[in-house]
Amino acid sequence: MPMTARAQGPTPNTPTAQDPTAPVDVVLRVNGQDHTLSIDARTALLDALREHLGLTGSKKGCDHGQCGACTVLVDGRRVVSCLTLAVTTLGKNVSTVEGLAQGDRLHPMQQAFVDQDAFQCGYCTPGQIMSAIASVREGHAGSEDDIREYMSGNICRCAAYPNIVAAVKQAAPDIAKG
Amino acid sequence: MRPFTYQRASDPNAALTALAASSGNPLPTEAAVQALAGGTTLIDLMKLDVMRPQALVDINPLAGSWAEINLDDGNLRLGALARMSDVVAHQEVQRHYPVIAQSLQLAASPQLRNMATLGGNVLQRTRCTYFRDVSYTNCNKRNPGSGCAAMDGVNRMHAVLGASDQCIATYPGDFAQALIALDANVEISGKSGTRTMPFAQLHKRPGNTPQIETVLAPGELISAFTINGRWPRSVYLKARDRQSYEFALSSAAVALDVQDGIVQEARVALGGVATVPWRARQAEALLKGLKFDDGLAGRVAEAAFAGAQPREHNAFKIDLGKRVVARALHKAATMEI
Description:
The complex is a heterodimer of chains A (178) and B (337).
Chain A: E1 24-30, E2 33-39, H1 45-52, E3 71-74, E4 77-80, E5 93-95, H2 108-115, H3 125-138, H4 144-150, H5 161-177
Parallel strand pairs in A: 1-5
Antiparallel strand pairs in A: 1-2, 3-4, 3-5
Helix pairs in contact in A: 2-5, 3-5
Chain B: E1 5-8, H1 12-19, E2 33-36, H2 42-47, E3 55-58, H3 63-66, E4 69-70, E5 76-79, H4 84-88, H5 91-96, H6 98-105, H7 110-115, H8 118-122, H9 129-132, H10 175-181, E6 185-190, E7 193-198, E8 221-227, E9 234-239, E10 250-259, E11 262-271, E12 278-279, H11 281-285, H12 294-304, H13 316-334
Parallel strand pairs in B: 1-3, 2-3
Antiparallel strand pairs in B: 4-5, 5-8, 6-7, 6-8, 9-10, 10-11, 11-12
Helix pairs in contact in B: 6-10, 12-13
């Protein structure tokens, strides 16, 4: 797939020969759909999703990889999108909270968060849900202790933690079944 | 964040050639061209304006050849681009080198462990708040000769071992303690070739030049870590302010070889308390040839912190650190292997 600085054509050998302010063309595959963007190389995946694609489900909390509100899956692995440069995700599949529901039918993890009242303000919830799905798929949601440990990268300042643990427990068997 | 050019390295030679473009600057951390791997330190510090590269070379495409985990010959070789989470999940690593798996497991969040590489992990920069906040001009690590705001500032998280009157910033990592305990070697690749040296020689104490953190030259990359032999009787114990996802207040990497109840070999390394990955050689030597008991563990712990120098807020780390060492030794000595 093409990814070149527009002003320069193919990547030259000496990076200093490039103009650092020149936009970079990149194709982002988000929730199965390709988007061609021309972006500043500094653009974090989180900002590309929110500001360029209008996918505002992923949230900006700390913007330094500490809170987990921006958690998305890249090729099925959960990452913090605030510390991921969008240009590095070329050719990879990005999954966000917007891709979970099928029509009006919520994903089992989304439904579990509703059923268990696993949020108060809701700001951290999309990141919690993406992380929770990853925890289950990694095989790390077998006990409450496991859930707490493997959800520790997602901070909830409303402290809905007991209900989040209950939600992950509820959804885990459905997701593990596939 | 300041603008930078981005290029993707197709193979190791291309990466090392691109990185060599900044060999004019003697400090690798200040080099105009920086390698981008997991990005969990670099992008963070670029957002804070602590690191200001003009060009990033994305070395993630090298993962094919530089991310292998190999135990075939009874030794361990870890490619520098292996992700922390992949090493933790490796069952042979868990079995033969528990201290390595545990040190990586207890570091960072699951998301960061999926991103961060082993090479980047050992090179992560200090979490000293005065280093990370550029509104403080007095940081000898960022601005050599400017002073140290931490000396008389809030220094609860700072080092009690290996500090100088220039810098008391703590080395924040966990995995490096496992490497230094196991006498790992580090393989370093540059444009002119590859060299291997003891991991214990990679990091430099601050001394009068806290801006120099490692012996790496600009343009060089860590390509692998190697460990001779196996260390099934080993543990990593980490004490922190919360139960998970936090930097160490004090940690210990311990590896023992016990035959017929007698300690044949003992390794003790300390984290969270020192300016660099810290091997407690004199303390561990007390164990050799003796039968392990908790009294002996206590004497080792005392010796490990014999030279500790606290500042206003971090004296608690000395008592805490001794208890962590003693408990880690007890765990290693009594574990079933």
